[in-house]
Amino acid sequence: MSNPGSSLENGTNNTTDFDDDGKPRRKGWFFGLFDDLFLVVFSWQSKGTLLTASAHIITAVIGSGVLSLAWAVAQIGWIAGPLVLFVFSIVTWFCSTLLADCYRHPVTGARHYTYRQAVKSTLGGTKFRFLALAQYSNFIGVSIGYTITASFSMAAVKRAICFHKEGHKAGCHTTNNKFMILFGIAELILSQLPNFHKLSVLSVVAAIMSFGYSFIGIGLSIAQIIGGNHGRTSLIGVQVGVDVTLEEKIWNILTAMGNMAFAYAFSMVLIEIQDTLKSGPPENVVMKKASLIGIVITTTFYLLCGLTGYAVFGNDASGNFLTGFGFYEPYWLIALANVCIAVHLVGAYQVFCQPFYDFVETQCAKTWPANKLIKTEHPIKVPLLCTYNFNMLRLVCRTIYVVTMTVIAMLFPFFNDFVGFIGAFSFWPLTIYFPIEMYIVHAKIVRFSSKWILLKLLSYICLIVSLLAVAASVRGLVVNVTSFKPFQSVS
């Protein structure tokens, strides 16, 4: 049989079953079952199109970042809050268009199947190692942040039921540690799944959950506003001398910007989404349109969450508007929203951690190629389910990782500061720096030309903003640690 890849290169293959790289023709696959889900819901007749790419972007963007937007707007106010969120959306969209042009190699025209592959082939080894550092640090931060958020949500379910039974004046306090341990046990089990291909169902469930709790939050806020419940708000947000000191105001604004950056942290999957598109029309043209559609819809969604949440809670908005208990009734809906958050984060944790697991296990296999404990897979038949391939390295490494992340979360259970830190730390390198640097190489932009200067200026401005937001989040963590007793987090 002939090789379809060779035939394509020679221009002799007339079949429509393969793309130009010899792989089966793209039909829009991404995270396993997403396309099938979208086809069922929206009755789309084809895959790998503008519509499917836009849907993938929306699914990738909307997540737990929406929970902190009411607090973030409260720190900045009615004018600057929406404006800053809008600026983040514009910058993210602009850099996503640059990234779309980097899908194919600037010289050979070969496809880049992943973000990491694009950086490595375009920028080389040194910058690729910087990318790896940024990505893996982000994975670790996300693991800790998700553990904290999920435990708060599980505690909120218990508190919602308690408030309904005992009244809104009751304390209904509960320790968060047991919920962090419960979340950690769930991740210990799921982390033994070998790779991404086993996570497709988990990814679909996580996506549905993220939309579920977001819509519940917006709906509850709108219901409160219609009912005449309004918080104390102002054009400049929390007021100096009334709510906070001047120093606290400045630090909170910077942390809020980190929270907003976290809400737009999706650039690392854009190349993967672009790789789902059909060959014609050109992938970069379709991807630019999809990025615009996706970001417009998600920004509208974010503005609804942030502004309606601020309108209801005002300057007293909590860091997570679904666990801060500005809402009490209907208690079952509050509990359902928090269940959705916890279930979403159970799946999202694994999606973020699998690349880190793969990196560690691949490096171990390269370092000790003859070690049977690392290489050997032991098939274990699970009654009524399937055959599970047990591996000692996978068990030990992933258990150590999950246990370590859980312990750190119990030591530093500070939601907004962690979200702000993750967002600020990852936003510049992954969303700004690498897309700009790759585009400069790809488009062969002359050094010190006006276009080169403007792109570099954008990168440096975003770097300064990110560094300030990182400093604010670290400062918040330090301040909270000094007044917090380890392993005694209470909701």
UniProtKB/TrEMBL annotation:
The keyword Transmembrane applies. The chain crosses the membrane at residues 51-73, 79-100, 199-226, 250-271, 292-311, 331-352, 395-415, 421-441, 453-474. Residues 1-20 are annotated as: Disordered. It is found in: Membrane. GO terms for cellular component: membrane. Keywords: Amino-acid transport, Membrane, Transmembrane, Transmembrane helix, Transport. This is Amino acid transporter transmembrane domain-containing protein. It comes from Carnegiea gigantea.
